[in-house]
Amino acid sequence: MAPETRPPPDARTVLKDVFGFAAFRDGQEEVVEAVLAGRDVLCVMPTGAGKSLCYQLPAVLRPGLTLVVSPLIALMRDQVDSLRRRGVGAKEVHSLVAPAEQEAALEAAVRGEVRLLFVAPERFRSPRFRERIAVAGVARVAVDEAHCISQWGHDFRPDYRRLGEALGALGRPPVIALTATAPPEVQRDVIEQLGLRDPVRFVRGIVRENLAYEVHRLRGREAKEARLIEILRAEPGAVLVYAATRKNVERIADLCAAHGLPCLRYHAGLAGPEREEAQARFLGAGAPRLVATNAFGMGVDRPDIRCVVHFDVPGSVEAYVQESGRAGRDGLPARGVLLYAPADVHVQRFFLEASHPSREVIEEVFRVLLALGEGRHEQSAREIAAACRVPCPPAAATAALAILDRASLVRRGRRGENRARVTVHAPDGDLFSATPLPPGLSRLLAHLVQRLGVGRPVALDPDALAAERRVTPETVRHGLKRLGELGRIDYQPPFRGRATEVGRLALEPGALEEVDFAALEERRRREEARLDEMLGYASFQACRVQYLLHCFDAPAAEPCGRCDRCRAPGRRRAAGIPEPVLEALLAAVERFDGRYGFRKLAEHLASPGASSVQSGALAHGPTRGRLAGLPVKEVEQYLNQAVAEGWLALEPHRLAGSGRRVHLVGLAERGRARRRGGQP
Ligand code: ADP
Ligand code: MG
Questions:
Q1: Which atom of ligand 1 is nearest to the CA of 54?
Q2: What is the CATH number of domain 541-675?
């Protein structure tokens, strides 16, 4: 064989020559290197960060077949097309590909003519597919949108659960799992379900670097409203305001308008065209302000949003980071502002209770339905809630009905499918002559008599009647109402809510066993932990970005220098931490490195009599009581400040069982150096 005249291409060469990109984007090169090294990798980066390249490039550079599992045919199509345009052999196998073509693609893979084969997870159900793919031999596997494997993620796909086993059958080639969904429990689930071995975890770009985070702690709603107006007045650029409820959206938009700050509104209660118009106007950069519920989000790519204000605390840090991350896509300075009144906690807890009803509430709602008996019932959630013998807000009844529906015990109808009930009274000579009807009503009544007969209640769809009579539904509804008022008919308008049908299955003894109460409880517990984590953000004393990163188990970073905490002039901060205090903090933290949080360390130092530090390691040691002259709160603040100044680092830690997160304090590099005596 002729000696090599050129070295084999390296990653950068392929990046330029095949993909036509001048440089790697942030994080890509490290991920590519780990994949090239044959490691299992979990890659968490936001949408649009360029995750596909992380497996496409190694697939081009290294021999062998790369199998890409992707949940959406559209995603596969896009990638296969763009790879082919770049001259890379890529094929797809999914339900929209004709069987003969699928077979041809598999055979091409067996012949070694395919570099990347894109498949939907459902493929692994097919024995033929499993057999051919094993023959082809898979050098590495990419699992895209890997959060689909986790039932805690937002689009759980049961077929993803097969992948772990399928990988085993392929001889466990190296796997790269990619997702933009970052919560640690989802990450853990992905690692576990796919059986990743000693995976390299990359969690990047979760928090945008040009964002300055602020929390405004305010007394209540009025103070929040006043602050919002101030912020809007001062901000010439585009602002997106998030509120928790439709009612709040309406209220805030009205308030803004009253202050001469017109504001578009967006929530799920608005008609489709109205919403679309609001979205189009805001995204079209014509309008500077939009207030929305979290229904606004998908496909929001206006780059120049300067500020995202949260009027209400969102339910999770994940939601907060996503929503606030809509600011500053253009890379220019932008703000993420949370308006926080401590009483908001109650509102959030109320939402949580309502959307995750207790077993007691579900049982009670079920009892109410059983008392109504088998059949279809036009009862609003409000009425059902009122019939409950335990406290049950209407929203909780709605959630309970949805749970019972999912367990197939009841079936919930759709809004708008309900019928009106009309009884046409027998014509009464006197009445007719006493009050002659206007011609329109008279014709309608004649039509009803002809259609429905007289004297017995009949279900009627007013919209269908309108179509028959070639008039608008409003005309018919109005006419029916008038005829009712005039005593010519009994008119019961259609039920405006969703009907509930109690099926036979519900009547069987032990029917409620169909409901997975343990899973519901687990879900509720997780939501609570998420909310706690979000509330922790609001009251966190050190760098906001560090807190957010901890929540995603992302690598610790230096304090951001942009958030309100980092910039706070703070009395003590200006003065710096007094030397002896800093000494004591560092000595204590070194001794208990990474084992305790702020509160316990502060008590150990300043209040050795406190009951929580009477036993265990904190009950002893030379630093015990060393700051006894200072209030515990103040020592906690110094600890915060020491984190902000880079002496100490916070390590996220989750308490088993509760899922609640506390931050354990350890020495940061700067603190370690000082303890070694390297630095004054
Ligand atoms: P993700 O999967 O993370 O949402 P994609 O892989 O779909 O993102 O990439 C988003 C876009 O970024 C694509 O159009 C892709 O071509 C482009 N892209 C990826 N890497 C680079 C790069 N290094 N330089 C320039 N553009 C890139
Ligand atoms: Mg992608």
A1: 6
A2: 1.10.10.10
Give me Rg for the CA atoms of the chain.
32
* Any atom of ligand 1 within 6 Å of the Cβ of 21: yes
Whether ligand 1 lies within 6 angstroms of the CB of 550 is answered as no
Report d(CA 61, CA 11) in Å as an integer.
7
Distance in Å, CA 286 to ligand 2 centroid: 30
Q: How many A from CA of 179 to the centre of ligand 2?
A: 7
Task: Name the residue at shortest CA distance from atom 27 of ligand 1.
Answer: 50
DSSP 620-648: SSTTTTTTTTS-HHHHHHHHHHHHHTTSE
DSSP H or E run through 289: strand 289-292
Domain 211-340 indexed as CATH 3.40.50.300: yes
Adjacency order of strands within the sheet including 264-266: 211-217, 334-340, 305-310, 238-242, 289-292, 264-266
User: Rounded mean pLDDT of 627-655?
Assistant: 79
What would the 3-class secondary structure string for 52-84 be? Answer: HHHHHHHHHHCCCEEEEECCCHHHHHHHHHHHH
Looking from the CA of 294 toward its CB, the CA atoms found within 13 Å total 14
**pLDDT value for 659:** 47
Give the residue carrying structure tokens 């700051």.
Answer: 627
pLDDT at position 8 = 67
Identify which has the larger pLDDT, 162 or 197: 197
Q: Is 49 in the pocket of ligand 1 (CB under 6 A)?
A: yes
Element (H, E) at 490: strand 489-492
- Pinpoint the residues of the chain covered by CATH 3.40.50.300: 11-203, 211-340
Cα distance between residue 517 and residue 508, in whole Å? 18
pLDDT tens string 78-130: 899 999 999 999 999 998 999 999 999 999 999 999 999 999 999 999 999 99
**Is the distance from the beta carbon of residue 52 to the nearest atom of ligand 1 less than 6 Å?**
yes
What is the per-residue pLDDT for 680?
44
Distance 212 CA to ligand 2 centre (A): 27
Q: Is 25 in the pocket of ligand 1 (CB under 6 A)?
A: yes
> The domain 419-492: what is its CATH number?
1.10.10
Q: Is the CB of 193 under 6 A from ligand 1?
A: no
Q: What are phi and psi of 490, to 5 degrees?
A: -95, 120
Considering every ligand atom shown, identify the ligand nearest to the alpha carbon of residue 143 and give its number. Answer: 2
* CATH of region 11-203: 3.40.50.300
CB of 32 within 6 A of ligand 1: the answer is no
Which range (337-341, 486-490, 658-662) has the least confidence?
658-662
50 CA from centroid of ligand 1 (Å): 3
All CATH 1.10.10.10 domain ranges of the chain, comma separated, are 541-675
Residue 10, phi-psi category: left (phi > 0), alpha (psi -120 to 50), beta (remainder): beta
Closest atom of ligand 1 to 52 CA is 6
Which of 555, 629, 631, 636 lies closest to 602 in space, CA to CA?
A: 636
Does the C-beta of 48 come closer than 6 Å to ligand 1? yes
The token pair that represents 305 in the structure block = 């949003």
Q: What is the CATH number of domain 349-415+498-515?
A: 1.10.10
